[in-house]
Amino acid sequence: MTTTDTTTPAAEAPPRGGEIVCEDVVRIFSADGIEVQALQGLNLHVAAGDLVAIVGASGSGKSTLLTILSGLDTPTAGKASVAGTDLLTMRGRARVNYQRHTVGFVWQQTSRNLLPYLTALENVCLPMSLAGTASVPHAEHLLRLLGVEHCRDRKPTEMSGGEQQRVAIAVAVANSPKVLLADEPTGELDEATSVEVLETMRAVNAELGVTVLIVTHDPTVSEHVRRTVQIRDGRTSTEVLRRRETDEHGQEQHIAEEFAVLDKVGRMQLPHDFVDALELKQRVRLALEPDHVGVWRDTTDDPKPTDQGEAAPSGASNDGSDDANRAEPSERPEPEGTR
Ligand SMILES: Nc1ncnc2c1ncn2[C@@H]1O[C@H](COP(=O)(O)OP(=O)(O)OP(=O)(O)O)[C@@H](O)[C@H]1O
């Protein structure tokens, strides 16, 4: 990952609010009398037209989030809406309409996305027929856009895994949803085919303007999206925003900046590698500077060197003043907001 400093990170950030809004979303599962908090106050805002990857360790809550956004499950608490539809109060007919028109899905298992006894064209026409808007020319247009027009009259068993996933994307966007949700869409594919499928997702995002959210374990997915959101223990923890810039030599640079997610009351999680690198534990020292917040390891209880080079008693300062523990600006580490 190429990283570089930048003076205007906020200028590139997507606007707050928008197509997908999750605020303090909680999902508790009860099984055999044991409660599992899969989502523990998750916050996520995705703007209309954005292309976002959600990454995280196994069990961090990615699939739970996607199942809620797809309308197949309801949060225990919090606020969640997609394209203005409130996912907590949605019932019956509204839920069917939501799944048919507002969101489209692509699942990991290629076999789950397509009906095996229908051709690619028939698979794409099916959701339109259910909505009463079947159009062969529109289905053909989508197959062409996704580069699988040659599969028009083939059944899934006559297509490669990558072709099946690209047809699945055409099926998912057949009813012009506002949001396309994909759960590990490259999970069963080799690297080269994964890249093709991800590029297809980009094309759908760019050409049709559909907002795309991809849940994945695959770290290479991050290189194909503008924004990667990390979920940790049921909460969004950090984000990486990517963009391309041309430097003064005319060379294109890929810029990746890491951000921490700040909730409404100001809580944030520091990335694991920051915590490990500075051996941060239990408590950190903070300082508000004009344009950033400084975070330092708590050295209050460290032995202090004396003039003779011996350790002073814990907590004692060199000159007896409280300021002795504060590093002078020249001694301070660089701000950690960018890497
Ligand atoms: N229906 C359920 N009943 C009980 N616990 C559940 C249920 N679904 C998920 N969980 C638990 O919730 C937590 C989050 O699960 P989730 O499937 O969302 O994680 P994930 O990040 O998608 O993991 P993976 O990458 O392995 O699919 C896990 O501890 C899981 O065991």
TrEMBL record:
Pfam family, one: ABC_tran
Record's keyword terms, sorted: ATP-binding, Nucleotide-binding, Transport
Record-linked SUPFAM superfamilies: P-loop containing nucleoside triphosphate hydrolases
TM spans (from-to): none
Entry keyword annotation includes Glycoprotein: no
Renumbered residue ranges of the record's region Disordered: 295-339
MF (Gene Ontology): ATP binding
Name of the protein this chain belongs to: ABC transporter ATP-binding protein
Keyword match tRNA-binding: no
Annotated CDD domains: ABC_MJ0796_LolCDE_FtsE
Domain of life the protein comes from: Bacteria
Sequence ranges of Basic and acidic residues compositional bias: 295-307, 323-339
Residues annotated as domain ABC transporter: 20-258
